Protein 1
Amino acid sequence: MSELFNVYCDESCHLEGDNIPVMVLGAVWCPQAISGKIARDIRAIQVKHGLKADFEIKWTKISLGKQAFYCEIVDYFFSHPDLHFRGLVVPDKSKLKHGEFAQDHNLFYYKMFFYVLRNILENGNCYHIYLDIKDTLGREKIDDLKKVLHNAHYDFDRKAIENIQHVRSYEMAQLQLTDLFIGALAYVHRGLNTNAGKLAVIDRIKQRSGKSLIYSTLPSERKFNVFVWEAS
């Protein structure tokens, strides 16, 4: 029987000229029927730690003072059987040779998002996809992503994907989880180590996932899936 899922997508260090070698894309997904309950659970954890119910979970906000809160959020994700994450890491954007593949950086970005989504979408189910809006390209980004999905001959955009839309991250708790996990991947792959709070959260993710975050997991991994993309 068909089930409807919400997929919450986000990106980090994705711009071509940002002088950061790493690029990370990712998505958290869950059944739509329980998405409201998950958001309420997350708000309850925030209040428990003395934060406002509308506090926005963000990787950039992690500090030693909020370490316990963020670690409990990580524990909540790994304890919930219906929450899943997939992240894709491009370790070094400077090695990309777009000209050899008849593409620009924008098209490469959408191709990478296709690689994120293809391991999430399953035949027979339906999906609502939410993208964090970070710029003014709104409608164009959605149209381009649909085009890439269609050109890949998966037909996701017409049947399995019922809706793709932009939202603001503060509106959706699950999108904030995506921000947290892609932030952790970016931190690890950039070799950063100066924020003790962030290092503690990364250690908790490694402990709960059993993954190093450095290497790709098996493609079949459903709870915390990481794909480290390498240029050919």
Note: Residues 4-228 form a domain with the Nucleotidyltransferase; domain 5 fold (CATH 3.30.420.10).
Protein 2
Amino acid sequence: MPIIAVSPEVSIAYEGFGDPADPAVLLVMGFGAQMLAWDEDLCRALADRGRYVIRYDNRDCGLSTKFDDQPVDMAEFVAAVSSGDLPAALAMVPYRLTDMADDGLGLLTALGIERAHVVGASMGGMIAQTMALSAPDRVLTLTSMMSSTGESEYGQPSAEAQAVLFGPKPSDRAGYVAAAERELVWASKRYGDAAALRRLAGDSYDRAYYPAGTGRQLGAMILSGSRADALRALHVPTLVIHGLDDTLIDPSGGRRTADLIPGAELLLIPDMGHDRPRALWPQLVDALVRHTR
């Protein structure tokens, strides 16, 4: 799998599907998840419809650059944010979503791609929004999937989903894989697939088990703040996709995103949670192909 320098400090692992001569679609993954969470079969399905699909590992995840020299204790960070001690929280985290957005744009530059369709899921949606805000001339279209605007009033998780997200995970492979089933709390109620969650967890563990990066990614997400004012002035064609079963980022996050961005299309999908069930891939691929024409 190629790894390419996108700045003097960061190298990014990526994979391409399809013909590089086709319109480029950059897939941006979410909090703590490797590029594997963009299922290879889904990438190929989109490539088969005439798109050059690129998935990649965010910094501090997978095979991309790790910031080991700047450790963040997640419990201490959450405590600082919860108590309102923002100076302490800010001092803990070495980067923001703008830096992660620059990684994605830097990857396009390194690949010789001037402009691309950008699709982000969850935290990846926040990164994709930030890419469109910082470099609208390079983003042909934006798709913000199961994401939100950085405003605390919207897109909040249920108590059960938050407990799973921030709960400790076993460090041994068998325990880590078994614990993946807890994520059914935010999956599609109809199509939630425990076996698929375990399989992804096992593949991710074997490829690059790296829990240390999650504290820094969480800090980047929380401390980057609201994008509401900037999104009101965004003039990039935008599709917002959100599952109505999502309990990790409530659908209000998607609705708010679509309300703020001028001309944005909102696609609310029944039977989809904070996941991309295989049964819904035809609908998702059709929507992405329409939007990225």
Note: The chain has one domain: 3-158+211-291.
Protein 3
Amino acid sequence: MNQREIYPNAPLVSVSFELRHPESDTLSAKQRSLFKELIRQHLPVMRTQQSTVQTIDLGPSGPVQRVSTEEVPKYFDRENTTAVSLHKNSIIVETTQYPGWEGFREIVVAACMARHEVSNFDGVERIGLRYIDEIRVPGTDVPDWGSYLNGSLLGPRSDNGIGLTLNQWQGVAAFGPEAGRSLVLRYASGEGFATDPNGELRRKSPSYPGPFFLLDVDSFWVPEDGVPEFSESLLTSQSEALHAPVREMFEQMITDRLRNEVFRK
């Protein structure tokens, strides 16, 4: 099997990248305009949003909740399927129309280099990649997931003698850390959608509520020693290392029946 195969009916609904850095000042109007010029080839439309952050401080009289707002510039492609958000402490790239790793990586590198050019940030605290799949089997009201998925995802046995049907289950598998890299796989049966079908980014194709199986892979790196300086070589090397196990994990979790009857249709 070719691990680089592009499935015509792939279940991927969301891919996101995050580079977390020490908190910096909010970008000025001039800096936002400069960033827009640098990223225009990929994301020519700029909008501004308000982001709300809730924190809890422990004081002498107990926990105190604080709410703060942040004005976040966000840059979109013209199809509203890909966006970059510039927060005080992070750069987030997200898409619902994944162009493949090489195309997505190009946007990630362009966004991070442009952000660093308009206002240097002090280093890198975390880099992460997240892939969310909604696996659906058309024409089935209650899919026989045992025919389509690796047995390790199937939860408790339904013939366990308790007299009740197993209808839903979820699990988490964590790998690492090793050399600062970790991977977390979240999986669950579900009904409806794993991501908001009416969200800010347009989904790649219309979808209808119904049974699905979630595969959510979060691959991330946290420096083990201090806060390294940002560089393009650090960004690309760590991103490649984080991406490498994602496809392998996905392929291990599905069966040839799912590939042939659903993904290759």
Note: DSSP finds five helices and nine strands in the chain.
Protein 4
Amino acid sequence: MSMTGTLRMKAVCRGDKTVIADTYFDGAFKVARPIYFNESEPTVYSLHVGGGYVGGDRYYTEVILEPDARMILTTQSAAKVYKTPHDPVFQSMNVSLAAGSVFMYMPDPLIAYEQARFEQTTTIHMEKGATLLYSDSITPGWSESGRPFRYEWIRSKLKIYENDQLQVYDHLFLKPDQQPLFSLMQMEDYTHVGSLFIVSPLLEPGWQEELEPLLAPYNDGARIGFSTLKNGGCTVRILARASHVIEEIILQCTNWLRRKLGQEPLQLRKY
């Protein structure tokens, strides 16, 4: 089946510097030239040149990091999903991380507009000793009625394998007409949801006690939940009423991890 957009990248470590050794893109997906905010680690911006996702679109991304390579992958702007009256939008991503590599995936929010349907599947294979930071966030887009949650549904599946053993399976499914999202045990009084997954040999028992004081200033504007993953990693789920709150919380967690890696704080400089 033909793809609306395809992106493939491979990062390799050469001496003390990671370089993007192989890049391929086609269709609506493009990629900007890597930017080195520090001299050893590239930040790559993926671009969508079509202006938004529409019904029947299919997108595929593949990322490979060889041993000791480090890379940040982000987007130029939010992904906007418009009406999908016939077929949903489907997006898939496969990531392969070798031992010693560090991959941080920090896209802008997904904005689902009225009557939008969107499905996303992400599969990550990592070797023991690799470090992964994976984040995403979802926000309801504008609707003519002014009511929130006018999209049809959003489905996001994440699988993380470590040494070929499934360690994480996360399935987030939001369908407003069957699930009153403002109700108890759903999103309650919040409109935006964010997720963060970290797997790293640097995580130790007590990570939650380290994160809690960093995120305490956001307690008035967000609900933040922590969980320990099967392989000792961590996940942070966030409910909020604005995208920037989720972005700030994810950035706090990202820079906490970067300090453990001996890296400088992250500055994506998009706006």
Note: The chain has two helices and 18 strands.
